[in-house]
From TrEMBL:
GO CC annotation terms, alphabetical: epsilon DNA polymerase complex
Protein name: DNA polymerase II subunit 2
InterPro entries: DNA_pol_a/d/e_bsu, POLE2
Protein family (similarity comment): Belongs to the DNA polymerase epsilon subunit B family.
GO biological process assignments: DNA-templated DNA replication; error-prone translesion synthesis
Any one GO MF annotation of this record: DNA binding
UniProt-annotated location(s): Nucleus
UniProt keyword terms in alphabetical order: DNA replication, DNA-binding, Nucleus
Annotated DNA polymerase alpha/delta/epsilon subunit B domain residues: 1-192
Length: 210
C-alpha cells in the first residue's frame, strides 16, 4: 500500500493527471480458493485502498480506475473469462471512488482512438510448461517474443488445451484478438517486457510491488 501511495502522490502533483489507472490482480497474497476464509478482511482492505486513492483529490475527480481480477482472486471458478470482482468485496472501495470500474479478465477497452486488450494471467509460464517442442531460436531466443507471436498468429489470448485451461465456450469470443487491437497488456508474473509485432504493441508491466 505504501508503494502505491508513493506512486499516486507523484501523479497527484503533475500538471495533467492521467485519465486512466488500471489495477490488475491478484489483489490478495493468498489464493482465494476453498481454504480461504478472510473475505471480510479482504473487503476491509479494498475499503482502505479506496481511502488511499480518495485522498488524492485531483486523481479522484479527473481519473478513471479499472480493476481486473487475477487468476487467484475471488470468483466462481478458475475458468476463462473470469467475471469481475464480487460486489461484496468492492462496494466499500466504490463508496470512496465512484469512478472505479470493475471489469472481467480479459477485457477490451477503447481509450480515445486506441483499442487495448488487458489479460491478467501467468501465461508465459503456462505456455512454456505445455510446450511440446522448443520454439525456434532462428529469429529470436526471447520467450516473451515467442509468446506474443503465438497469440497473435492464433488470434487468441490463451491457446492452451482445455485440460490445462478450461474456457466457457459461450464466452470464448472474449479471448479472441479479432479485430486486432492496437495494444495488448499481458499482466504476467515474469519480468517486464515490451515487444512490437506486426504493428501490435504488446507488453508486460510486471508487478508494482517487486
Amino acid at each position: 500500500m505504501r508503494k502505491l501511495e508513493t506512486v499516486l502522490d507523484g501523479y497527484e502533483n503533475v500538471e495533467v493527471v492521467p485519465s486512466l489507472f488500471v489495477f490488475m490482480g491478484n489483489f490478495c497474497s493468498h489464493p482465494c480458493n476453498l481454504s480461504f476464509h478472510s473475505f471480510s478482511s479482504l473487503r476491509l482492505h479494498f475499503g482502505k485502498l479506496g481511502q488511499i486513492i480518495g485522498a488524492h483529490t485531483r486523481l479522484k475527480e479527473h481519473s478513471r480506475f479499472l480493476f481486473i481480477p487475477g487468476p487467484d482472486d475471488a470468483g466462481p471458478s478458475t475458468v476463462l473469462p473470469r467475471c469481475a470482482l464480487p460486489k461484496y468485496l468492492t462496494e466499500e472501495l466504490q463508496k470512496h471512488i465512484p469512478n472505479a470500474i470493475f471489469l472481467s479478465n480479459p477485457c477490451r477497452i477503447k481509450f480515445y482512438t486506441q483499442e487495448i486488450v488487458f489479460f491478467r494471467q501467468d501465461l508465459l509460464y503456462r505456455m512454456r510448461r505445455s510446450c511440446l517442442m522448443a520454439p525456434s531460436t532462428e529469429e529470436t531466443s526471447d520467450p516473451f517474443e515467442h509468446l506474443v507471436a503465438t497469440i497473435t498468429h492464433q488470434s487468441h489470448l490463451c491457446p492452451l488445451p482445455l485440460s490445462v485451461q478450461p474456457i466457457i465456450w459461450n464466452y470464448d469470443h472474449c479471448l479472441h484478438l479479432y479485430p486486432t487491437p492496437h495494444t495488448i497488456v499481458l499482466g504476467d508474473r515474469s519480468e517486464q517486457k515490451a515487444f512490437n509485432y506486426t504493428g501490435i504493441t504488446c507488453f508486460n508491466p510486471g508487478s508494482v510491488f517487486k
